[in-house]
Amino acid sequence: MMNRGAGIALALAAGVCPAALAATAEIEAVYPAAHSLYLELHQQPELSGHEEQTAAKLAARLRALGYQVTEHVGGTGIVAVLRNGPGRTVLLRTELDALPVEEKTGLPYASKVRAKDDAGNDVGVGHMCGHDLHMSALVATATVMAKSRDTWHGTLVLIGQPAEETVSGAERMVKDGLFTRFPRPDVVLALHVANDLAAGKVGVIPGIYDTNADSVRITIFGKGGHGSAPHTAIDPIVIAARTILALQTIASREVKPGEMAVVTVGYIRAGTKNNIIPDTAEMGLTVRTFKADVRKQILAAITRIANAEAQAANAPRAPLIERYEGADAVYNDPALAAHLRSALVGALGGEAVVTREPFTASEDFSVFVEQGIPGLYLHLGGADPQQLAAAEAAGTRLPSNHSALFAPDLDPALHTAIAAEVAMLRDLLSADAGTPVPSSGAGTPPKS
Ligand SMILES: [Zn+2]
Ligand SMILES: [Zn+2]
Question: For the whole model, what pTM was predicted?
Answer without folding.
Answer: 0.86
